[in-house]
Amino acid sequence: MPRVKRGVIHLKKRRNILKKAKGYKWGRKSTIRAAKTAIHKAGQHALHDRRKKKGVMRSLWTIKINAELKKYDLSFSKFIDALKKANIELDRKILAEIAEKNPEIFEKIVKSIQK
User: Fold this and answer.
1) Is the pTM value of this prediction over 0.85?
2) What's the CATH number for 8-114?
3) Which of 18, 43, 50, 59 has its CA 20 to 30 Å from the CA of residue 99?
């Protein structure tokens, strides 16, 4: 059986690992073993935080809507319930944007619910 030399591939793998670990502190940027674990954990945190970001944004939308609703003496939960009963299908993201940038349109939405 012929001899197989894998030096090029092995070096390429190590180079890619160190490239991904660029900017890390201490030995994690230069030691292969430490860099491998650091990259793996960084990937796990990145995945987890992408999921977490969705919840953070949703709570931010709630805060923005609720802040605008204080002017009309309405609570967020009653507002959302009234929206559903009035068959107004605007999600929280759009409502938060309208409340922040177009308060006059948001006022029309609130008035249409209060009737």
Assistant:
1) no
2) 1.10.1900.20
3) 50
